Amino acid sequence: LEVVVKLPRRDFLHLAGATAVASAVPRVASALDYPNRPIHWIIGFPPGGGADIVSRIMGRWLSERLGQQVIIENKPGAGTNIATEAVVNAPPDGYTMLWAGISNAINAMLYPGLSFDFLRDIAPVAGIVLFPLVIEAHPSVPAKSITELVALAKANPGKITLASRGRRIAQGESRRQHGARAVSRRSADGQRPPRRTSPGRDRRRGGLASPHPLRCIARVGGDHGRAARGLARCRDCCRDNEAAAWTGVGVPRGTPDAIVKLLNHEINAGLMDPALKARLPNSPLRQ
Amino acid sequence: MIFAPAEFGAYMAAETEKWTKVIKVAGIKAE
Prior knowledge:
By secondary structure, chain A is α/β, with parallel strands linked by helices. Chain A has helices spanning 9-32, 50-66, 81-88, 102-110, 118-121, 146-155, 170-184, 234-237, 257-272, 274-277, and strands at 39-43, 70-74, 96-101, 122-131, 134-137, 215-219, 245-252. The termini of chain A are far apart.
């Protein structure tokens, strides 16, 4: 006996529709019970610097709020491009987040051969903090202010050297550009030595790493709080010479809106939490 | 920096535009 089942076209379409619905269910469910496993927070800086510290403060907050561990993963290199690329290529499911910032904005033009387009491939989630930046000098440098530093550079063309935290990374880049502009606009060419400073060797004002604490010459962007009280802003001397090292979080483009909204909500709740806020750099520094 | 996702997106775009201009005008090259 042979039974041939003929499906009317309408029934076939119903079945096809049912299949489509069935295959869509796991995706919807994963957005609904998000997060049900650890989340990776990728950061393009090594451990120990400001970006790392703030990431860990925020990561701990998010872990508690979301009920899943947020793992901070440091992927330094290529001026944060390695970290960004890793997130661009991760599945858009909310389990991989990127610490994004001013480096991404700078790198878009600085690196013409990137395999990704930051604005196209990374979906914005939330802002985090503005890092205050400073121009510092070795105590042996006679200049005590930005005005004096510019005068010194003018009087000694080619003799003033600039170092940055990294050749192409955010704080380093903007510091360098500021330094270079501050000097070159006043017809003296600043030289840059091959020396680099990194978070691990950061010579902060009064820091433990250096026997000769560097002297703050000017503040550049962000809210420096009490630590920089009385310190002139760079823009007071050099018009338009102002930048801020902004930071935030992004996810791979295509991540469900519900997840983006949830992450945004929880991050903003943290930024408004008085206890957490007091630990972040754009609130007045505690001494 | 408290932003809605779209606001942060607009900020990112404005910053990218700004630094693209700075790098072009100043002729800055990656070393």
